[in-house]
Amino acid sequence: MAQKNPLQVSKPKKLPRASSATSFKKQVSITMRKVSARSSESSNDAKGQITFRRVVGIKEILILVVALTISALHTVIIVLSSIYSPNFYRRWWYAAFFIVSAIAYFALVVYFLIRWKAIAEWWIRKQLLLAGKSKNRNSVIPTKSFFAEKSALLFELKDKLFDINGDYYLIKSFVNELMEDYWQLYALVTVHLCTLPIEITTVFFFILVGETAYRFYMNSKALFPSGNKHITVHERDTQVTVDMFVDVFFLIVPLAMYRFVVFVNLPVQDLFLLTFMPTVTVFTKIKELIEDAICINAENLIAEHQEALSERRSRRRQSLFGNLSFNEAVAVNQNRYFPKKAKIAVALLSLFYCLFTMTLAIFQLASSGAMTKACNSEQTELIWKNCQVKVFFCRSFFEPSCNCAVLDVKKHNITELPDKFTGLNAMRKMTFRDGPLESLPEGMKGFTSISELNVAFTNLQAFDVDISGWEKIIVLSLWYNKMNRLHPSVWVHKGLINLVLNDNVGLNFPSDPAAVYLPSLGLITLQNNSVIIPKSLNSEQLPLLSALYVNGNTIASPASLLQNNKGVLKVGVSRCNLTNLPFSETGASQLQYLDARDNNITHISKPLEMVAAAGGDDNFFFARNPVCKSNEALNCKPSCSKYCWGKKHAVFNKVCDPGCNTQMCEYDWGQCV
Question: Domains plus CATH for the chain?
Answer without folding.
Answer: 21-136+145-223+234-318+327-363 (no CATH), 404-643 (3.80.10.10), 644-673 (no CATH)
